[in-house]
Request: fold
Amino acid sequence: MSTFWMRFKRMVYLVHRWTGVAACALMALWFLSGIVMLFVGYPKLMPLERLHSLPALHAGACCISVEQALQQADKPDAVQEIVLTSIAGKPHYRLRQGNGRYLTVDAATGRSEGLVDGQRALLAASAYLPGDEPSYRGMVAEDRWTHSGSLNAHRPLHRIQMSDPAHTLLYVSSTTGQIVMDAPRAERLWNYVGAWLHWLYMFRDRPADPVWSWIVIILSAAGVVAAATGTLAGLWRWRFSQPYKSGSHSPYRAGYLRWHHLLGLAFAAITCTWIFSGLMSMNPLAVFDAKVRPSLAAYQGGAPGAERVALDVPTALSLLERQGFHAVEIEWRVLAGTPFLLARDGGNSTRLIIQDGNSGKVLEQWPENLLLRAGRRAIEAPMASARWFFQYDRYYFHRDQASMYGGAERRLPVLRIAFENSDRTWLYLDPHTGGIELASSGAQRTGRWLFNFLHSWDMPSMLRADAARKIALILFSMGGVALSVTSMVIAYARLKIWASRLRRKRDAAAAG
Reply:
């Protein structure tokens, strides 16, 4: 055996020994918290939760015109988002201006409402959970449950503690007065040993925190090195053909070293792939970022502040009510230069209203030709293909509430358009809303396999057999826990030996 090979093997053994000492406890916590995350996700307000709490909008009791509401904006034609919804139980227009800031207008009086104070936050909480006694808990820019970047436009957030059986903690936007997060007590408690622990959120104090990101990347990379070198060392120590004198294929006869060797070989593949995919989840060095992003402005072909259907709100609501559709929210949108209204009911079903002469017409879905026209505008590249999907594929699929992607709507059918550009961009267009539900580059699709699939086994076929999938994930995770526990025992023994040697050296130096 060459000297180089012997040195290389010795280096692998030493690297595994000390990276294992450093990472064993953390890896045990990652496996355990991952089991919790199968059932309890990081707190989020699901679309159905938000819409279910809203009262229906009635044609006879609503509202000032959208033109009157837009007069409160700094630049009405530049308004990017117009939504008629209910805040604290009363209809309001929510406008997102060209500078990204939100403005709310009382739909009954036309009065512009400024920053939301504690009293208005309490009213919003009471409307969200009627019958409960809310308790104001102050304002926070960010806390352990509100790291999501989607909340940035709503910060600081009012915290309201409810007296319902779930002891729900509500977060209210200081810019719109809407509920933006609900976190029941059981969900918060489980998250301490779930997502909060798994993602090491104790080191994070802002939505974009490079220090936290690099902590997770470095620790994950150390875990990958420990798992990979351990796999090599375990295979080298295992005699496949000629057993040791003891008759065992492992050199370790008993104790934690033997169990560590056997468990390491049994769970080597799953440990390596899970730790590696955890590293990939952090998108190190932005390797999975898209270089080309769809142009939403081109896709829409106009801002709703400037392009709107010529229908007043009572007429639109009457059209919907005649079809038995009771809208709780209406949004003014534009698709390929065609203005329309998107209505949602309390169950998150949708309807589209377009101009039809002097009146309006209600649709359930957009026709393919209009979606294709809008899609072509979004990416400056030739269109390679367009295909309808009536079942989920490997990139567009629905996840349950516990998943970090649980809040995505992911309706079917969906139209996928592929482009012949350097990024190999795919757009998934939802005909029910006219929105780009998912934009995916080649690099992002690679990241989907290296993170999502390896980490959570989220192929549609696996998700359909969800009970079996979760049982398998739990069993493999428990194997990882057992492997990590044996690592911790061995690490403790190794550190005792190391400390004893240091004491002897110190005593010898003192004696000399």
About this structure: Residues 466-511 form the longest helix (46 residues).
